Structures are given as C-alpha cells and as structure tokens.
Amino acid sequence: MSNVTVSEKYTLCMLKEIKNFSNMELSIHLVTSMLIEMMLEDNLEIIENSKKNFLGCNMSIKLNARTPKEEYNQIFYNYLRENNKEEINMYEAITSVCYGKSGFSDKKYKEIVTKFKEKMVADDLISLSSKKGLFGKKEIININDNKFNMIVDEIRDEFIDKGNFDDEMILLVSLLNSTNFLKNIVYKYEKDDLKNKLKEIKDTDISKRVKIAREIIAAITSAM
User: Fold this and answer.
1) Nearest-CA neighbor of 208 among 74, 75, 76, 90?
2) How confident is the model at residue 53 (pLDDT cuts 50, 70, 90)?
3) CA 71, CA 112: separation in Å to the nearest integer?
4) Distance between CA 100 and CA 108 in Å, rounded?
5) What burial class does residue 38 get, using C-beta atoms within 10 Å of its C-beta: 0-12 exposed, 13-18 middle, 19+ buried?
6) Which of 18, 39, 145, 160 is the most exposed place for a label (fewest CB within 10 A)?
7) Which residues pair with 132 in a beta bridge?
8) pTM over 0.85
9) Residue 35: CA count within 13 A, CB half-sphere
C-alpha cells in the first residue's frame, strides 16, 4: 500500500462508520490532512504568527513555488493560490474550501473530493455505485474491508507495538484519535500502550496542527 496516502487511509477508516464525504467532522479533518500532506511534501508551510483571527487561530499557510504530487492536492493548492495572499489563516484556508466564503457553498470541496475519490477507487480502497433516491440517484460508497483491515493492522504493528513515529504515522494516528475512531480499533490489552504512545506524540508539530482542526470544528458547530 505504498501508493496510498495518509489522507486515503484516514478517510477509509472514517468511511467504515460515516459513509458520507459531506460529514462535517470528516470534511474538516480530511482538508487538514491534505494541508499537512502538502507541508510534508514542501509545497507549503504551516507557521505560527502573532496575528490571530477572531476565533484565536494563529496558524497560517504560506505557499511555496512547488506543485503537489497528488491531483487532489493540486486542485486544493490552486484554490489557496487564488487568495493572492502571502499568508492565509488556517481557519480561513479550511473553511473557505469546505463552506466557501459565504459559508454555504462546498463547490471547491466537492471538486477536490471528486478527484480524491478517483484515486481511492484506483487504489482499490473503495468502489462506487448508485441507487434511486427521493431526489434522484444517490451515490453509494463501498469500502474494501481487506484494505481497511490492513490499515488497522499497520497502526497496531507499527505505532502501538514498534513505536513507529514517522511523520505520516503521527498524522494518521492524530487524525483518527481526534475523531475518536482510534479507541474503536484497539484491543483491551493495548489501551495502556496506546495511551503512552499518544502522550509521546502529543507535542509534535503535526499533532498540534490536527488539534487546530478539532478546534475549528468546535467553533463552526458552536456558530451553527
């Protein structure tokens, strides 16, 4: 599964329970994952500054002149570039894609996700079908249970048992922990080991950035 990105692994785990890309929790964490993927690829920087937005978010995005590898990230990157700003507040970067500047349009998110789903299908993580619904055809997402089990086993073997703390594993585990999925795939006897491992990665830069996504979700939910 070397060709499968962290965002794909995270999404496959979430789709096991949610089955819907429009879910607020999934969408914001998925967009955050894509941002951090681009950071690890050196397409952009996620930096702290003294200027906070009205919700207290002081994380900003600074674009580098380097095109992302994945097509879904290329679309996202181009949307960020359209802002014509030297730095973009992370809250603004996430919500403008998920909800648009008006707060109601998810056109950008749908375009990114369409390309993202194509990659998940190509990587044999999901298959798509449709059925008739009240308002026309409804898309059905079918996950590949074998690939799902491989990801769960990877988390158990690499993170819990071996303590593999590379950037991609920290990102995946932090996202799944933030969305409360992680506790559902851990055996009873593994809980103490998992708790200790999570403490070890708590202060990493990637974990802090995922925490920002959680705060953004809370802020949006409160505003609604």
Assistant:
1) 90
2) low
3) 9
4) 7
5) buried
6) 145
7) 137
8) yes
9) 32
